[in-house]
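To illustrate the input format used throughout this study, we show a single complete record. The first block contains the structure-token representation of the backbone; no residue identities are included at this stage. The design step must infer an amino acid for every position from geometry alone.
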């Protein structure tokens, strides 16, 4: 019988070297063997300059805890109720050179096991960004306890997305009323027409699909730099009003990119009942973005804001829907 290796009898630098060769899977499993080991690993990793991960948690049918390190490498735990998957591990490469190393853990109590794992990885690793993908249909009776749990670990998150088929506002509102989102919100589910986004802080972006609840007044109240809106009830006349307010700096002065469906393509001239310039789409120009980056532009229509910024507008299609897109820049 082999004797266990006395790791903690080694000098600290040697211990650190051993741990630095471990994968996150091995680090988490190792940290669960004793409180002493867990504390040592926590101190080591949290003081390391190279230990800055992005945390992704997902309440899918098989709840997920994953974190991305350097070189687009994702280490992913999936909690499963299928005993045959316990301990299964798959490595795969995806588009954009993303690499996924996935490990399955069996449990009869999926959300409880998921919570234990989330708590452990947050205790051990240092995260620079927190992303929550919330599937409201998968564990409907536990949605509020999931939100309460996340709030107990961090009062704010950078990115969240909502997915589901059930038209329910309550769980989404509970999430947004209890967790402050600082960068991006994605609504990939149908909400009732009564729904109103409850936060008033500025965000980098919104994805809203479908946007059945997004009226003109609600759009004006949203504060963000990028908007991707599909299936909203906003009319061409209201789009005209929106662009006029933008041109006169009365709304969305930090807007950088705007995409929205056009409900009546036959009367889209109504949208441009305002000062504008038709542009040769074959001519490429250079626009300087608000962050000073430059971008090549080909546009159909230019509109000018009263501070000199230009909105370059194009039209596109998504299946049978017409879309308006606008990029905001300073034309050079």
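Output of the design step:
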């Amino acid at each position: 019988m082999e004797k266990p290796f006395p790791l903690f009898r080694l000098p600290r630098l040697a211990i650190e070297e051993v741990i630095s060769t471990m994968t996150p899977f091995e680090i988490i499993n190792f940290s669960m063997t004793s409180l002493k080991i867990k504390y040592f690993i926590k101190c080591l990793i949290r003081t390391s300059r190279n230990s800055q991960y992005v945390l992704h948690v997902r309440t899918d049918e098989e709840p997920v805890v994953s974190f991305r390190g350097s070189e687009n490498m994702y280490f992913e735990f999936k909690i499963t109720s299928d005993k045959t998957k316990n301990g299964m591990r798959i490595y795969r490469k995806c588009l954009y050179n993303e690499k996924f190393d996935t490990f399955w853990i069996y449990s009869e109590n999926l959300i409880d096991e998921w919570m234990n794992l989330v708590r452990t990885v947050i205790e051990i690793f240092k995260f620079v960004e927190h992303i929550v993908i919330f599937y409201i249909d998968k564990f409907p009776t536990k949605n509020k306890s999931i939100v309460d749990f996340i709030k107990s670990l961090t009062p704010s998150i950078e990115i969240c997305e909502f997915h589901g088929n059930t038209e329910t506002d309550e769980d989404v509102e509970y999430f947004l009323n209890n967790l402050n989102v600082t960068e991006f919100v994605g609504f990939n589910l149908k909400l009732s027409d009564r729904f109103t986004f409850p936060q008033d802080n500025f965000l980098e972006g919104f994805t809203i699909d479908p946007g059945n609840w997004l009226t003109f007044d609600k759009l004006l109240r949203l504060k963000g730099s990028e908007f991707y809106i599909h299936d909203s009830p906003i009319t061409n006349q209201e789009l005209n009003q929106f662009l006029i307010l933008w041109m006169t700096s009365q709304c969305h002065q930090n807007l950088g990119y705007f995409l929205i469906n056009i409900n009546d393509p036959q009367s889209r001239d109504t949208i441009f009942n305002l000062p504008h310039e038709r542009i040769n789409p074959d001519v490429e120009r250079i626009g300087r973005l608000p962050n000073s980056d430059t971008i090549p532009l080909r546009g159909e229509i230019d509109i000018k804001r009263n501070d000199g910024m230009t909105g370059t507008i194009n039209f596109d299609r998504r299946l049978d829907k017409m879309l308006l897109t606008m990029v905001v820049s300073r034309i050079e």
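Structural context for interpreting the output: The helical segments are 12-20, 24-31, 35-46, 110-124, 143-153, 170-178, 216-221, 236-247. The radius of gyration is 24 Å.
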